[in-house]
């Protein structure tokens, strides 16, 4: 029947009723009821399914449901028909509307089409791309899809079958076994908050988990939920999560009988296809969690009427408590009350932000994730976006798994006033034990604190020059369906400018927060934080000049030339770690702690008394202050390293972006196994064509016979002798030696020297690591011809690996897609004339360089 503004509004309820009847019928058959005893019921259910099929496939004037609707409504209707085809597979009829083969074709074809194939599809089969309408509406569709998938998995083995819908026949793999669906389930697991709830992204409720994934039969998708700090909702129990007004999944969940697998989650999750940047410290329900949203492309363009104005917004959860809110979703009719940019943790431009999505058009603000990496004591990532004629880059540092630094770089051709927002879970003026939580005003000190259920969030915020103004506002968020509650929002506003910076420390805690102070100067936004064991300083700037921290907190002033700079010392003043974004230099007093040959994002940290970890975002040569010579420097892209004993500096040559480790001698032990009979001041190597050139230097030599050069390949347990270099004899003067390994393997390789003295004793040098032969980075070459009329030639240089080529329209929708190796031809003759965008991704979903505009002419 027709109800509401569209004929399919009512079908969502009828489809769920049909599924309930089908499950009841199937349970009775399984309990021993005969087909004869259930014949009358089968006839009625068959007619019910037939009516749904007929109505959903019959055009109404110019309206055709499956050709126009590409969202959760299609998935729900199609899944109900698919389940009917499985349960009533023995039913027959002369009416095609009541035939199981018709239902199966409509069900599987349209699920496959809406999720994976259509230009308006909700996901992408080539990468983890999430579900465009957001987590809740994917869950809503899954309530119909999962019973169908599980039934089909029991009914048919893995494999592809031919299914016909209309005039099209397509071979489709059984969804229960199809790994494409695992990408969607993996996406949900990757973004789950520590208490088991889904983050309230887009039009999603704040109190929803997804226990129904137990129906996949895979233990890694069965996650427990924790309700002790979930208040203001009737969903705070496992029973409530599995049963709402229209759907009861309790029996299906119990029948799955799935024991959850041990939980695991990386410290940093980067999903550019779905726009999720997730930082975690731990895997239990009390872990600290921050989600930063950076969605663009197909996922954003196809979100339609369920996308909110939330580009670059964040959610923070710690100690079992949601602390920094996304506002949730009251209901479709009231979505605008909480879905605007002013309801999200993002920066407003002249009081406005990205627009909320409308039916048929997602929010127009496209975002992207870039430059993410993770080391033992620090994780980093960026989200970039544009709205209101301004460019916003949100940079996030997660420090020691304890607190977050958010640096927002803002720029525009004209001057604007920028407002930094944080919607915390607490209300100013509320009693200490109020269910709303509380907010404590610290605006004079540039901060505010929210507290709920014994967990607090301190936010300390500054801007360039420290000239921001601070205020608060009261805003609503959803607690459950059509029920709102107020909270206090911290607002930090900059003076009008064409560019500025915000720098914020977000510190969740249960006992004592760090002491944070503003130390901004005229051209920097700067903070200093003191916590048990550490003194941290950070500053952001709009250029890359070498500037000094003005906090006075450290024994010596620290200078750096990155866009974002971070330096940490122990409470005793010893070096702990550093980070520079797009930087080359960090100095502590007169000492150059780090120098890079090329600008890069660089992390360097002491992780134990005898080990350091580092990272650089590109091929680079790093010179690092190090008091002792290392015993080894390891990393997949370490081309060579050398230690200068006189300057106490380690030089590491990286052939590509890479993490690396530096091992020092254990306490009480020298750099080598025993002292060498020569004083070795440097040992390094580099690739020269197919060979490896080794060189080493000595300060002095006594009774040395020579050097046996040994090689160890990746995966090999032993060093193998490959050459001999005789000693130049006893000398108190510096000496230099070299050796070329002409037979060096192309893979990573290690070298060391076995130094023999004239008495026959042997000692060993530190190990030198040489990275594998660098593989050329894949990139898109200019597409030809321009303009294109019928065919567009696409070429990929630098790699023979398979890549995915996509042609996007002006809204970011994929209009052509093809996998290729090195070259491909796209048919563009049927496309509307105009400007398109050619992009490519590798097998891991990483974008290739060379994104370009393409002109299609008539």
Parts with pLDDT < 50 across at least 5 consecutive residues: 671-676
Helix content: 10-25%
Tally of individual helices: 10
Tell me the number of strands: 49
Look at the helices and sheets and give the structural class: mainly beta
The rounded distance between the terminal residues' Cα atoms is 44 Å
Mean of residue pLDDT? 91
Q: Name the shape in a single word.
A: globular
Q: Mind summarizing the main beta sheet?
A: 14 strands, antiparallel
Gyration radius (Cα, Å) is: 31 Å
Report strand %: 35-45%
Describe this structure in words.
Helix content is 15%, strand content 40%. By secondary structure, the protein is mainly beta. Among the domains are: 181 residues; 109 residues; 135 residues, Immunoglobulin-like; 78 residues, Immunoglobulin-like, CATH 2.60.40. Strands 21, 22, 23, 24, 25, 26, 27, 28, 29, 30, 31, 32, 33 and 34 form a 14-stranded antiparallel β-sheet that branches. Strands 9-10-11-12-20-17-16-15-14 form a nine-stranded mixed β-sheet, with no helix packed on it. Strand 16 and strand 17 form a beta hairpin. The longest helix is centred in the N-terminal third of the chain and has 21 residues. The chain is globular and about 105 Å long. The relative contact order is 0.06. About 1% of the residues have low confidence.
